[in-house]
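Archive record:
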Amino acid sequence: MRFRPLLALVLALCLTLVTACGGGASAVERANVTYDDIVNTGKANDCPTLPDSARGSIPLDPSSRYQLREICLHPSEVFVKGEPANKRQEAQFVAGKILTRYTSSLDQVYGDLSIDGDTLTFKELGGIDFQPITVLMPGGEEVPFTFSSKELLATAGGAAAISTSTDFEGVYRTPSYRTSNFLDPKGRGLTTGYSSAVGLVPAGDDEDLTRENVKQYIEGKGTMSFSITKVDNATGEFAGVFTAVQPSDTDMGGKTAVDVKVTGQLYGRLEQV
C-alpha cells in the first residue's frame, strides 16, 4: 500500500515523456523498423513527422548549393469537382473516399533548390514521384487519377532561410493513368489490341465511338503548393501540408478529365551538396 504513491509518480512521469515525444514517427524511427514491423499495416504509406516544438529555421547561403531530399507527400483527403446542379451554380469540389490504401504516398522525392535574389526555386528531379489512386464518390462513381510531382517547378519567397513561413507553389506533370499496352474490355489499345471493338462497325462521324476506338496517351498539368509549418534546424528536416489540383484519368481519351484536389501531409529534408 505504501508504494502506491511512488508507483503513481513513476507512471505519471512515463506518461509525460511519452506525450512529449508523441509527435509521430521520426525519420530515424522509420529507418530502424523492419519489414515485418510494417508489412500489411499501412505504416509504409505514412510520412515521418516532426514534433510541434520544431519551430526553428534553417539559414541559407546564396553561394552554396542545396537539395531538398526525402520528400514525402501523403494524401489524406481527395476532392473531385462535380457537375453543378444548374447553370447558375459553379462546379464545387466534392469529397471522395480513397480506395487505394497502402500505396498512395509519394516518397524519396528529391530535387535542386536554387537561390535567385529573394526567390527560392525547387526543381524536382526524381524519386517515387507518381502513384495511381482511385477515389469513390458519394454517388458510387470511381474516379482514377495519377497523383504525381513529376517535374515540379515551384518557387517561394524569402531566400534567407527555410522557415515556418516558407510557402512553395508551382506546376508539375501528370502522366496518363493508362499505359500504351493497356487493353480496354473491348480489346482496344494504343500499341496492341484492336483498332475498334470486335463486332462493332466503327462510324467515322460518331464522336463517341471515335474517342473510344482511337486510344491516346494523354498527360496533364497540375499545380501544387506546400506550406512548411515545422522546421528542425539541427537535422535539416521540415514538415507541413500540401495542396495539389490536377486532372483525372481520361481512359486514354475516352472520357473528359475532371479536376481533382489532393491535400495531405508533407515531409522533407534540406541538404547542402
User: Anything to note?
Assistant: Residues 3-24 have pLDDT under 50 and may be disordered. The chain is about 10% helix and 40% strand.
